[in-house]
Design brief:
The structure is a homodimer.
Chain A: H1 23-36, E1 45-46, H2 48-55, H3 59-67, E2 73-74, E3 78-80, H4 81-92, E4 100-103, H5 107-114, H6 116-120, E5 125-130, E6 139-140, E7 143-147, H7 151-158, E8 162-165, H8 169-181, E9 186-189, E10 202-205, H9 208-220
Parallel strand pairs in A: 4-5, 4-8, 5-7, 8-9, 9-10
Antiparallel strand pairs in A: 1-3, 2-3, 6-7
Chain A binds a DNA duplex through residues 5, 8, 22-25, 47-49, 58, 60-61, 63-64, 66-67, 71, 73-79.
DNA sequence: CACTGTGAAGAAATTCACAGCT
DNA sequence: AGCTGTGAATTTCTTCACAGTG
């Protein structure tokens, strides 16, 4: 993570013996992809140095990271932008859309439902559910809010692959259990609790207050600021 | 994960705070603090093992992390909850409030302004600014929305220490520059761009689509899930 | 006995530095 | 000459394992 350093665990099941991509690298791939989008439209090739500046990281790190995807740079020239974009999108599984379900249509859920960035980057929000009977039946961003009790059937019907939990902390684990039972294997959790899920299910968390607390630490310890010089890299 | 840091070694500060706390540890302190809050009210002491389960990490890591704060556990017993809470809050600078300014009152800014978790954890949102003349003057959550042009005076008047950027990506760097010029040293950035800031200013970022892309990677590579077994740790 | 605190081992991530290709 | 790709060195983080203590 942001910092949060991300996941742990999973020493087993290599299964892709070829080239396992280190977790730290995986966390940065979306950053590189985003950085490519900042290049002028007519840019044909990009050097590791230039990409590094855009991504706010070290050039050697860019080269090492990209080398895990295969060797497709040209020495003396750089990386062909289109090819690089394609390879990264392929690795990240972005050649297809991943339909998203948002659980909890409070203020945050609302904001997330409206966020264009999800669709733009391949994650269409296809369904909303909430436990509040007062919200069920209302329409948000063109989507009807369904009762969370119907979560299972909705996941199946809409082909949901990814669940976003934007509920109060108290019910987040319960919701996670329901998502897992419905077959969802990717969860983005905004509730400030640690979720427990079975092996094979991925969880990433975003805890807003936690981010501020980390900033407060550095604010207080004024001699060793995080991210000095450039924006931080937050582990990607 | 994580934040880059430039060399410090800044002399002049009285008494080196004993041990420098590693960045990975700093990133977990808020997690532990949150975990303590999940204990029953009458809990007097907690073991590293119990805290580890709550935080979703390894017990050795908990002990090592806490040891950087000083040695105040009791062998054979555990850590006194109140003391632990105090020490962590002290290290994180949470014995005081850190007034927050939100820049950009779109859907996300709105949701953030309403989020109770900030105030509860010591980060009162004291001001809102936006560049849209149509929004300036409106009242959100009891706070008037001011023109971003007045950012400097507002930061000074309200004692803002921390800025949250919830603007479109295109203006985020400009906003960051204004925040820095106004004296803000801690920035939480929701815009999907890498911010460049001078040394001494900390930036943390939250990129929602990026999180989904990371999940998509593991979804696609079904054999090496992130955070299998338990929720992932930030971290990062 | 139960649990902390920590050296030491191990693993992962980062960075260096340069050989090798275009 | 310019830039990639990568072994090797370095640093950081994690985990082990156990001595030490209430």
């Amino acid at each position: 993570m942001v910092a949060e350093r991300s996941s742990d665990d999973s020493p087993g099941l290599p299964a892709r013996p070829a080239r396992r991509i280190p977790e730290a690298t995986v966390n940065r791939l979306p950053l590189y992809l985003r950085s490519l989008a900042e290049l002028p439209d007519d840019t044909a090739t990009v050097s590791s140095e230039r990409l590094a500046v855009l991504a706010g990281v070290n050039a050697a790190k860019v080269r090492k990271d990209l080398s895990y995807l295969g060797s497709f740079g040209t020495r003396g020239v750089g990386y062909e932008v289109e090819h690089l974009r394609y390879q990264m999108a392929r690795q990240l599984g972005l050649t297809q859309d991943w339909p998203v379900l948002i659980v909890g249509v409070g203020d945050l859920g609302h904001a997330l439902a409206k966020y264009d960035g999800f669709l733009e980057r391949g994650f269409p929000v296809v369904a909303l559910v909430d436990a509040d009977a007062g919200k069920v039946g209302s329409v948000v961003e063109g989507l009807e809010v369904h009762d969370v009790a119907r979560l299972g059937e909705i996941v199946a019907a809409a082909g949901v692959t990814t669940g976003i939990i934007a509920t109060p902390a108290a019910v987040a684990q319960e919701v996670a259990d329901q998502l897992v039972a419905a077959g969802v294997r990717s969860i983005l959790n905004f509730a400030p609790v640690v979720l427990s899920v079975p092996p094979g299910v991925s969880v990433r968390k975003v805890d807003l207050a936690m981010e501020l607390q980390i900033l407060a630490f550095y604010e207080q310890h004024r001699s060793a600021p995080a991210g000095a010089g450039l924006g931080i890299g937050e582990e990607g």
